[in-house]
Amino acid sequence: MSNSPQTPGVAAGRLAPEDLAENFRDLHPPYDGHEAMVAADRCYFCYDAPCITACPTSIDIPLFIRQIQAGHPEGAAKTIFDQNILGGMCARVCPTETLCEEACVREAAEGKPVEIGRLQRYATDAMMHAGTHPYARAEPTGKRVAVVGAGPAGLACAHRLAMKGHDVVVYDARKKAGGLNEFGIASYKTVGGFAQAEVDWLLKIGGIAVDLGRSLGSDLTLDALTSEFDAVFLAVGLQGVNALRAGGEDKEGVADAVEFIADLRQAEDLSSLSVGRNVVVIGGGMTAVDAAVQSKLLGAESVTIVYRRGRDRMSASRFEQDLAASKGVRLIFNAQPVAVHGNGAAAEVEFGYTRDGDNGLEPTGETFRLAADQVFKAIGQKLEDVAAGLALDGDKIAVSGTGRTSVEGVWAGGDCASGGDDLTVTAVAEGRDAAEDIHKALMG
Ligand SMILES: Cc1cc2nc3c(=O)[nH]c(=O)nc-3n(C[C@H](O)[C@H](O)[C@H](O)COP(=O)(O)OP(=O)(O)OC[C@H]3O[C@@H](n4cnc5c(N)ncnc54)[C@H](O)[C@@H]3O)c2cc1C
Ligand code: SF4
């Protein structure tokens, strides 16, 4: 190994392969049978359970935990999948600490919730490892639906529609299905090719054709889809990247955090990935944390997240913030980038401190610089211009509660649609609910 964390500039192979393998192992290893029983025993099986209300897909959590406790993990899995067909991925990636586990009465009483996420993984893994798919299709309806985008929203919608007997074609611009499950979620949350295994398992329902490498806006038009199909569901996510609005943004070494993460997720050999000695990540959400943590795990010597507001405004949860800190990532709050300095390539980022003023965030006038040979922008994504003719709400596609857009016969859900909170589980809920509404509209 010729490189180390101290190698100047941006370099590959900063750590030995065995250290990389150790760094990128499963964040929350699966329970064995005994551990699952012990965890399930802590549940009070509450009446009007607050954990159910806190789950965006309303999984009957006490019921599935009771099924685990009774020794029926596959029955528990069915309870989960009835509400959330991507329950396996959600068990791995949901910020449970701000959803079901935050609401758990054990959290309020003891500061230690029932570990619902890990129990959900135990149950869903049991059924998926067995290779069984618990749903059959209804009688064919003769209706055809196009789904654009094979991320969580599109896949959940497609599965529910196929169950109802409709024929579905899922289009995706990428060469692999899964959306951000495949290209975005941090590696250590979904190890072992789980995203593709989950897609393969979901497609076992039948009736779903997946057409990859087909992009709405270039290969496909909304007009053509609405005339060929009985309904269209748009689940294209957010593909555009917000600009930094700081001088020197075009310098070498300044990159989009999501692209870095996508490369990492697709890399066959982690030691082939280049990372800076000094990495600065600008942003305050999960993407910022994931880019920072994974830079550190790849062997960057120093990694700093800089967020323009205070800690309490960060959209990454406290768990994610603590995870970053535990890996040695430094967090700086109330500072925004002014300029990236360097001769061709980034060498330093200059920041200005901020404070909350009467008219929003304002500069204090004090500045500082951080050494940086790699700068990741994680300041949010935006909808790319694929929705010509559809009314927008802010910068997303305007939808009703069940995903209806302003155009008859076209629904939308997931990150590209208004409302929601840009989480995997919310995208699944929106895809599922839109499918129910599409079914009602087609059969009404
Ligand atoms: C780095 C990162 C980490 C994240 N980590 C978490 C996490 O830990 N937990 C969590 O709950 N959420 C996380 N999220 C958020 C979560 O991934 C998203 O909310 C979720 O994936 C949204 O699902 P979606 O189906 O709406 O969109 P996406 O997953 O973005 O899928 C959209 C799909 O549409 C396709 N597409 C786009 N444009 C076109 C087009 N014109 N034509 C055809 N196809 C198109 C794309 O290729 C993609 O496959 C993370 C997001 C990012 C960026
Ligand atoms: S709130 Fe906690 S204890 Fe009550 S049913 Fe849900 S998981 Fe069990």
Task: Please give the number of β-strands.
Answer: 19
- Structural classification: alpha/beta
Shape: globular
What Rg is obtained from the alpha carbons, in whole angstroms?
23 Å
Distance between the termini: 66 Å
Q: What percent of residues are in strands? A: 15-25%
- What's the number of helices? 17
| Biggest sheet statistics | 5 strands, parallel
Bound molecules: flavin-adenine dinucleotide, iron/sulfur cluster
Q: Give the mean pLDDT.
A: 96
What ranges have pLDDT less than 50 throughout 5 or more consecutive residues? none
Strand order of the largest sheet: 4-3-2-5-19
Share of helical residues: 25-40%
Describe the structure.
The chain is an alpha/beta fold. It contains 17 helices and 19 strands. The chain has helices spanning 17-23, 33-40, 50-54, 61-69, 73-83, 87-93, 100-103, 105-110, 116-130, 152-163, 180-183, 194-202, 222-228, 257-266, 286-298, 318-326, 424-443, and strands at residues 10-12, 144-148, 167-172, 208-212, 231-234, 240-241, 254-256, 274-276, 278-282, 302-306, 330-332, 335-341, 348-357, 360-371, 374-377, 381-382, 392-393, 396-397, 410-412. The strands form 6 sheets. A 5-stranded parallel beta sheet has the order 4-3-2-5-19, sandwiched between helices. A 5-stranded parallel beta sheet has the order 7-15-9-10-11. Strands 12-13-14 form a 3-stranded antiparallel beta sheet, with no helix packed on it. Residues 43-46, 49-51, 61-62, 104-106, 114, 116 line the site of iron/sulfur cluster (SF4).
